[in-house]
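task queued by scheduler; priority normal; single chain, no ligands, no partner chains; default sampling; output format set to structure tokens
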Amino acid sequence: MIVAVMGAGRLGAAVLSGLLGSGHSAGDVVVAERDAGRAAEIAARHGVEVHSPVVAAAKADVLLIVVKPQDVGALLTEIAPEVSAGALVVSLAAGVTTAAIEERLPSSPPVIRVMTNTPLLVGEAMSAMCAGRNAGEEHLAVAQALLAPVGRVTLVAESQLDAVTALSGSGPAYFFYLVDAMIEAGVLLGLPRPLATELIIQTALGSARMLRESGEHPALLREAVTSPAGTTVAALREMDRRGVRAALMDALEAASDRSRELGRS
């Protein structure tokens, strides 16, 4: 099975690294990239063939669409003559619906829509997927097999994917934003930056593991850290006073709205 990674930007490079790192042979993966310099870089770094989109699509049994959402339409129009009914199209483009993809591919191939995130680079991605009208259980199984080695995979209704995009697709950026702010706070409080960084990263890792392994609601885990009249409750009270929780909810709603807008563009 030849897998074509259609796009070699940040997401495409992350997907490519995830595929190769999870045991896929470089001979079974091709990459589509127009920029000659970027193509040479990808070929040298990963040992894969890099072609124009049309050539890559012609070679592929599975096409992974990883270009920017606003570029999906033009890419599909270009490669449509080379996409057979037997090929599987897996789109990782935020906001772009399976119907929008199917409309541009006259051969009516099966289409799977996926929202994943960048932790796939370290084997900890969270991917959610849904099937288009021509895709069945066997196609979902292929897509799941491609993504399972680099993290967790779940099936959702397509109507939920904009919310998934806001929550987990963009989610790593929120955590990085928070961690960056906490490190800066450590520096403000007098800690050397390397020490503040080590403290916060390990705290984040440990907290995530507790959430996964304990199975407890995060509110209960938070309460276990919050002693009466202690330091934690003082910090949480200040966050509530400044509306941090409401700001986060508003931010995720904005991300979901933007995902829907990208799907209409």
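post-processing summary
- The first strand starts at residue 3 and ends at 6.
- The longest helix spans residues 193-214.
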